[in-house]
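Suppose a colleague, Dr. K., hands you the sequence of a protein chain of 149 amino acids and asks what its three-dimensional shape might be. Before reaching for any lab equipment, you can write down a predicted structure in token form. Begin with the sequence itself:
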Amino acid sequence: MSEQDIKTQASVLKHALCIGLVDVLLVVTWADALIRDSDKVDDWLFDLALSKSINQAISLLAQVPGESVNEIWWPLLKQQIAIALESGKTEPQAIAHYCYNLALSGEIPPYDREALYQLELEYDCIFAGYGTQAEVDVQALQFFNKQKV
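The predicted structure, expressed as tokens, is then:
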């Protein structure tokens, strides 16, 4: 597996772990599989395979060498989010807020930033009496299910 592929997977896992889509055991299993398939194993990978806490795993995933390309990892994370939202495993507002913060920091590709800004605004408007939680949740589900055209 190339360094780029590993960094992409690490980016998806890091964000999925941050929002509760996966647990530490999945990350440890992923690291173990990489160790088994590699001739040369870096220290960060051994440390990741021994992770015990979410914070430790997130920190180590963020340190994976290589360059993360937003246009590659973001669609993969977006697919995982869509599946989790459809199955009811997570709350649309919490996910939208997390992704909004990623958009603000420039980690989301430009083609989806405006939609995330709009979703955050829609959730904020609920408190002012404009719209309902259910209406905005449907918009969030539609956004995460929509693939880049």
